[in-house]
Structure formats: structure tokens, C-alpha cells
């Protein structure tokens, strides 16, 4: 799936620009990417629908010029699949019922941020699923058309049988039994094609099939033509469907070879010649069947993958010519300790697979440990070499949540690689039913790490230059945060979302601010006039003691207030407008600056400046991507700069990617630029952040 597939094209039908902006901000704060547009009357709605078909329409029930029913009529015009969501405040039961009658698929409570995010996610997922189903249906129809063509042109006599009756047969089948047209056999029992001496046995087979038993892959019997003559035939059974109904695909073949030889040849086709285990094709067929059983509610099935550790080093020891001998010995070990009821196969060059038909999580891990220990204790005699080796094992349990062969194989592979990355000679098993528990445990561990970092100075500050295009005095930097980990520094994307969900951000904000002030003081003592841009989270805005604390920190460090600029994304300021305004006004009193990040992402971003005192506007990064190629983005940046300068604000362009963008930004009137192209972030020396 591409990145653009995850961006929701959103059309807001709303009289209020502020309400529309708030909805957009709520969604973006929830991590939902949207490309918004707004309409407040019928002409604007028609223009928006014509310009770009939206995924979702959120229509305010209080919209005066566009009643919900009319929005639905215009959205439905042309047969487009657009999800209509009604929204409102203090909605009554009667209003909800009326909204659904007028075409709404969902009702959204405007004042509940969580409800807004949940409804939009759910409806977009449902829309994506409907689109996917339509694509699959089209693909299925095309596949069925091709299958019909292949069936008609096949030289193999093939028929489809449902409840013992013919529902489809190809030309070769009709010719084999002496019929001219399918109408001659349509609705005829398959029993009529069986010679009398085998009819009773075949009737018993049909009864077993009707009870859900699996058919034999092959059945040797005498078949009977329409003229009563008989011939020796082999019937091959395959589960299939025809016009949506489950049925059996039956292929008749003349017995031209010894049945025992045919059986031996079939067994050989299923085996890997080097290891005498099943080959990948057969193992995947069995996995598909196991997945189908899981989708129908069967539990306690699993797939294990096993690889020798450091196989390249092992080959260097035994020699490439002895590789097959070693793999054969490993396969023998696998069969001996796995048991006869398991399907063991060779998945790739040195990867073995085990399909477990009746193993829960505990039994799967127990078997994995048994295999791991057995291989670890074995001394392999290969040529003139005696070697020992260890194995890594990865597994995945099958369930309804992951009832897909590719998904199960990928999960088992991920678990195998995890075992190898952890040093090898171990087993990891992925259990879908335990993933929620694992997520809770992972959150607990992250919170422990965050709390430990807060208590023991376990965070690390970086700073990235913000370069003036017009020679502003002093040095400007943005402060960036990392967390020290046992195997290196941890980027903020891994721990900040967990910290935010669990109320740790105010404490982290204070740690960053305190250490940033210390770093500024150290730089200024060295003669470098410095301004730091420091990110602030909405949770800190609710802390009434934060501003006095910042003032005291500056006073203790004997540091000027304008050396600090606090920054927040535009979308988060919109949803926390009252506390953000109070905080920004408080910053003015202690002479600190305030900046809006991701500016220009809303419907009317400059409207926000009437409510919030702002010093810097950091232009939304989406305008920077491949800037030289996008004339409309260049025009938008120039428009933002012109309005910003008219309002007395300075502009900053982040994520600058190339030299060509630099010259464009200069001509647009941007004041400052920032990005890895100019300079990557550098660590603040530890004694400054101690």
C-alpha cells in the first residue's frame, strides 16, 4: 500500500470554518492523515465533488444551506461510493434515526475527540474493504472467465459435481463418455458414470463426502460410457466451487500404467530429493488447507521454521560438496524427533518447515525446545569432519485473525529472524491471541524505561541548525530528543507516543526545557548568542505551574527569555486553543517566543493568528517534498510568506531537501531554513545536559 492510500480525502460540509478546522485537527492529532476540503453551500459541494471524489463526507446537521438529504443525493450522483457521516452536538435519538434515513452511514459526536477519530477510522476501513472486495470480485470474475476458457480447451476430462450431480463438464469429459452436449449430463448423477461392480463402493464414498469428509486424491475403478461399455479409469478429486457453491472437481483418466507405480510417482513428486522430506510445494498446499481449517474455527495448529545457525560458516567447515549430506542428516533428525503425524518439509535451501496439526502455544514451544536441544546435543559426521551446530526456530500459531498462508509464513519467518538476531539457538513463537497481552507488556516496559530515564538523566538532546537566509544575528537551533538505550539511542517515534498516552509528557517537557536552558547558558558563556526552539506538548499547557517554573529556570541560569522559542503543531493548538492562548500570552511576559509548526495545513491557518500571539511560522513540511517540481507548492509558500511578513511574523522552512529548493525558498521570502541537507542534528555534549 502506498503512502497516498492512507491519506483520507475528506470533505467537510459545515457553516463554521472553526468547527471544520477543529475536526481536521482532532483527526491529525489522532495520527489520521487527511487531505481536507470544505463546502457550505450546494455550489461549493458540487465543485468539490467534481474536482476530487472524496472518501468521506462529514456533514454537520446544523448546516443551514445544505440539508443532509441533499448532501446524500449529490454524493450519490454518478454511482460513486462515498461514505457520508453525520455529525452534531447534543444529538437526540430522533435526529440520529432521521440522519440514517437520509443516507448517513454513521453518526459522529462532534465534542468527543475519541469518538470522532474512531468513527472516521472505522468508516475509512469499511470503505477500503468495500473497494478491496470490488477489486477482488472483478479479479474473481476474470479468473473464472479464464478458468472456463482453460476448462473448455483442456484435454483432461473434467467435471464439477455438487451433491453427486453434474453441474459442469468440459468437451473432453463429454467425448470420453459418449455425449454430444452438456445438456445430456446436466443434473445426471455421477453414479451413472460408474460401472455396476463399483457402484456400491462409490455410493458409500458420496455419503462420506456429504458428511464433510475429505475425498481420496485418487480412486481406481471401472467407468461406464453412455453406450454401456466400460473402461478402467482413475478419478482425481479436488475441492472446488462453482457459481459460489462448494463442489468437487473430478478428473477422469484412463488407466494406462500400473496404479502402484502411479502412486509411487505421485509420492516422488511431493518429496524433496536431497532430504526425503516433503518439498515446498506440498508443504504450502498443506498449509493452505490448515489455514482454511483455521478460518472455519479450527484451533491448535502451528507452523515452525528451523534453520541451522551460521550456516555459511558450517559450509566452510564441511565443504560445499558435503552440504547435501549434512542437510540429509538434519532431515533425519527432524523426522525422528518431530514424529510421524507432523508434516515436515524443506522450505528453502537450508530452511525446514513443520506443520503441526494439533499443537497449542505451549505444545508448539515445547516441541521447538525439544528440537533445539536435540540438534544442540548431536555430533554430525560429515565426510571426515565431526561438527556440532545449533538451530534457530521461529513459529506462528494459526487462527482466524491470521487465516492466510502468506501471513502465517511471514509471521513464522519474522519469528525465525528474531531468534537469529537474538544470538541464535533459541525459539520464538508468534501467537495472535497473545499479541494484545504482548502490547500491554511492551507498554509497561517502555514506561519503566521512560520513568528510569526521567529519574536518572537517561535522555539525550540533539540540536539542528536553523539557518537565516537574511543574516539574522546569533545562532538558531531546534532541540531534538532521544532516549539512551542498552543498544544505542532510541528515536522519539518509539517512545514519545507511549509517553503521551500515559501522561509522561509534562515531565519530559520539563526535562528538555531545563537542560536546554543549561545548554544555552553554556554557549552564551562561550560568547555564542543562541536561540533554541523547544517542542511543547498539549498536556503541558494544562500545567498552571509551568510558566512560573520556566521563568525561575531562566532566572537561575541568568538567561534572557528570548533565547527560548516554544513550538507546537498548528493542529494541536487548534484543539487546545484556550490554554494555548493563555500560555502564549504568558510567554510574552517573560519575553520567550512562540512558533506554530506544520503551518498551512489547515483550511484557514491565518485565522488562528487572530487568537494566538505568534513569532514564527514553520511552514508545513508537505510543501517541501520535491519542491522544484511542484509549482503550486511554490506559490503556496510565497503566499504564506507574504501574509506572514505583512502580519510581522518570521517564517521557517523545514525539511529542505536540495540546493534548488534553497534558491526557491529565498525567492519566496522565507526567513529561515532547516533540514538534513543543510546539516544533520548534532548531540549536545553530555556535561551540558547533565
TrEMBL record:
PROSITE patterns: EAL, GGDEF, PAS, RESPONSE_REGULATORY
A Pfam family reported for this protein in Swiss-Prot or TrEMBL: EAL
Swiss-Prot/TrEMBL keywords: Phosphoprotein
Ranges for domain EAL: 443-690
CDD domains tied to this protein: EAL, GGDEF, PAS, REC
Entry keyword Phosphoprotein: yes
Domain GGDEF, residue spans: 299-432
SMART domains in UniProt: EAL, GGDEF, PAS
Domain spans labelled Response regulatory: 9-125
MF GO annotations: cyclic-guanylate-specific phosphodiesterase activity
Residues in PAS domain copies: 163-213
Biological-process GO terms, alphabetical: phosphorelay signal transduction system; regulation of DNA-templated transcription
Keyword Oxidoreductase found: no
InterPro entries from the UniProt entry: CheY-like_superfamily, Cyclic-di-GMP_PDE-like, EAL_dom, EAL_sf, GGDEF_dom, Nucleotide_cyclase, PAS, PAS-like_dom_sf
NCBIfam families per record: GGDEF (TIGR00254), sensory_box (TIGR00229)
Protein name (record): PAS domain S-box-containing protein/diguanylate cyclase (GGDEF)-like protein
Record organism: Dokdonella fugitiva
Amino acid at each position: 500500500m502506498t503512502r497516498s492510500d492512507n491519506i483520507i480525502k475528506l470533505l467537510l460540509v459545515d457553516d463554521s470554518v472553526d468547527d471544520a478546522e477543529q475536526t481536521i485537527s482532532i483527526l491529525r492529532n489522532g495520527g489520521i492523515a487527511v487531505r481536507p476540503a470544505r463546502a457550505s453551500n450546494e455550489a461549493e459541494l458540487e465543485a468539490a465533488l467534481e474536482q476530487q471524489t472524496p472518501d468521506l463526507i462529514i456533514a454537520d446537521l446544523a448546516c443551514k444551506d445544505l440539508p443532509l438529504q441533499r448532501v446524500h443525493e449529490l454524493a450519490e450522483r454518478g454511482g460513486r461510493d462515498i461514505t457520508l457521516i453525520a455529525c452534531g452536538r447534543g444529538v437526540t435519538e430522533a435526529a440520529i434515526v432521521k440522519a440514517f434515513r437520509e443516507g448517513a452511514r454513521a453518526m459522529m459526536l462532534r465534542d468527543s475527540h475519541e469518538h470522532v477519530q474512531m468513527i472516521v477510522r472505522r468508516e475509512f476501513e469499511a470503505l477500503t474493504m468495500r473497494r478491496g472486495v470490488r477489486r477482488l470480485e472483478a479479479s474473481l470474475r476474470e479468473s473464472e472467465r479464464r478458468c472456463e476458457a482453460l476448462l473448455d480447451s483442456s484435454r483432461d476430462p473434467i467435471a464439477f459435481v455438487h451433491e453427486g450431480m453434474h453441474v459442469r463438464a468440459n468437451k473432453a469429459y463429454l467425448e470420453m463418455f459418449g455425449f454430444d452436449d452438456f445438456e445430456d449430463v446436466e443434473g445426471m448423477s455421477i453414479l451413472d458414470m460408474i460401472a455396476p461392480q463399483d457402484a456400491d463402493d462409490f455410493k458409500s464414498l458420496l455419503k462420506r463426502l456429504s458428511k464433510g469428509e475429505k475425498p481420496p486424491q485418487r480412486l481406481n475403478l471401472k467407468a461406464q460410457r453412455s453406450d454401456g461399455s466400460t473402461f478402467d479409469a482413475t478419478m482425481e478429486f479436488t475441492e472446488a466451487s462453482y457459481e459460489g457453491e462448494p463442489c468437487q472437481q473430478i478428473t477422469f483418466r484412463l488407466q494406462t500404467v500400473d496404479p502402484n507405480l502411479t502412486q509411487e510417482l505421485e509420492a516422488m513428486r511431493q518429496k524433496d530429493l536431497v532430504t526425503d522430506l516433503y518439498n515446498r510445494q506440498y508443504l504450502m498446499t498443506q498449509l493452505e488447507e490448515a489455514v482454511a481449517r483455521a478460518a472455519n474455527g479450527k484451533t491448535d495448529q502451528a507452523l515452525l521454521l528451523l534453520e541451522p545457525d551460521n550456516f555459511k560458516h558450517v559450509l566452510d567447515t564441511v565443504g560445499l560438496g558435503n552440504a547435501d549430506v549434512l542437510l540429509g542428516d538434519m532431515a533425519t533428525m527432524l523426522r525422528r524427533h518431530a514424529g510421524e503425524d507432523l508434516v515436515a518439509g524443506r522450505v528453502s535451501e537450508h530452511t525446514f518447515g513443520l506443520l503441526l496439526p494439533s499443537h497449542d502455544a505451549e505444545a508448539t514451544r515445547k516441541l521447538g525446545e525439544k528440537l533445539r536441544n536435540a540438534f544442540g546435543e548431536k555430533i554430525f559426521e560429515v565426510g571426515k569432519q565431526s561438527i556440532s551446530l545449533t538451530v534457530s526456530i521461529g513459529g506462528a500459531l494459526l487462527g482466524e485473525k491470521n487465516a492466510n498462508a502468506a501471513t502465517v509464513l511471514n509471521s513464522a519467518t519474522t519469528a525465525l529472524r528474531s531468534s537469529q538476531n537474538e544470538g541464535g539457538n533459541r525459539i520464538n513463537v508468534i501467537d495472535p491471541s497473545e499479541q494484545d497481552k504482548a502490547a500491554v507488556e511492551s507498554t509497561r516496559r517502555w514506561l519503566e524505561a521512560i520513568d528510569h530515564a526521567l529519574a536518572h538523566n537517561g535522555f539525550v538532546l540533539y540540536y539542528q541548525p536553523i539557518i537565516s537566509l537574511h543574516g539574522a544575528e546569533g545562532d538558531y537551533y531546534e532541540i531534538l530528543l532521544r532516549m539512551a538505550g542498552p543498544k544505542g539511542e532510541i528515536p522519539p517515534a518509539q517512545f514519545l507516543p507511549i509517553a503521551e498516552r500515559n501522561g509522561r509528557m509534562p515531565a519530559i517537557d520539563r526535562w528538555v526545557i531545563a537542560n536546554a536552558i543549561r545548554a544555552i547558558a553554556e554557549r552564551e558563556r562561550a560568547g555564542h548568542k543562541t536561540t533554541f526552539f523547544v517542542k511543547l506538548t498539549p498536556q503541558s499547557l494544562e500545567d498552571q505551574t509551568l510558566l512560573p517554573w520556566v521563568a525561575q529556570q531562566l532566572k537561575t541560569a541568568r538567561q534572557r527569555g528570548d533565547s527560548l522559542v516554544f513550538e507546537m503543531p498548528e493542529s494541536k493548538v487548534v484543539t487546545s486553543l484556550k490554554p494555548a492562548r493563555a500560555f502564549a500570552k504568558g510567554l510574552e511576559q517573560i519575553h520567550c517566543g512562540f512558533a506554530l509548526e506544520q503551518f498551512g495545513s489547515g483550511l484557514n491557518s491565518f485565522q488562528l493568528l487572530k487568537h494566538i500571539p505568534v513569532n514564527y511560522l514553520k511552514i508545513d513540511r508537505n510543501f517541501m517534498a520535491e519542491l522544484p517540481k511542484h509549482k503550486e507548492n511554490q506559490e503556496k509558500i510565497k503566499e504564506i510568506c507574504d501574509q506572514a511578513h505583512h502580519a510581522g511574523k518570521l517564517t521557517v522552512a523545514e525539511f529542505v531537501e536540495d540546493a534548488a529548493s534553497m534558491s526557491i525558498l529565498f525567492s519566496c521570502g522565507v526567513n529561515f531554513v532547516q533540514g538534513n541537507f543543510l546539516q544533520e542534528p548534532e548531540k549536545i555534549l553530555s556535561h551540558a545536559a547533565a
